Amino acid sequence: MGHRLKCGVAVSFFAVFVAYWYRQQVGNELDSRLETVLSSLLRAERKADLKRRPRVAVGFGGCLDIVADGVALLKKAGIKPSKNPVHHNYITSAEQLAESFAYFFPAGAASERFISNETLFRKLVKATQGLLRVRWSLGGNAPVMANRLAKEGCEVLMGSRLTPDLIEVLQEHVTGLYL
């Protein structure tokens, strides 16, 4: 074995050893922090009054999401595919929607964008009718967290702009200021 090869092997072993040692040190620090958080949560839980439901308030951002096959939706809505992939922060036209779809779809990435064009938005919602495998799901952080907390036994007060359809899918113990 040549001198350079021996040095390369030695440096490689040293690098692996240092990486292993460093990872152990970081892991120990994270374990210590996690232990502190968990023990604090357990102390707080022992102090909690379990004779009544805990009360929690959450707010803002609620919607119903429509989950559908994007290719089928664009085809049914009559939106032609774009050969020009562009990242748009919000959508104002069918062309921008096609460009944004062309940008995100090949990578399999999700993209949630605001559609400021109400006519286009309504056209897309209407186009989902009759598509296969379409489902509605609760969207937005506030109602998702509110439902989960209610399932865990909390009495939840939620402040959000909600439609009657959205209010229907909220758990029994979610009440609110529906703005």
* Rg estimate, integer Å: 26 Å
Structural class: alpha/beta
- Per DSSP, the total helix count is 6
The strands making up the biggest β-sheet line up spatially as 1-6-7
Low-confidence stretches: none
Q: Would you write up a description of this structure?
A:
The chain is an alpha/beta fold and 179 residues long. The chain has helices spanning 3-47, 70-76, 94-104, 118-128, 141-151, 164-168; strands at residues 55-59, 63-67, 90-91, 114-115, 135-139, 155-160, 174-178. The strands form three sheets. A three-stranded parallel beta sheet has the order 1-6-7, covered by helices on one side. It has a two-stranded antiparallel ribbon with strand order 2-5. Strand 6, helix 6 (164-168) and strand 7 form a beta-alpha-beta unit.
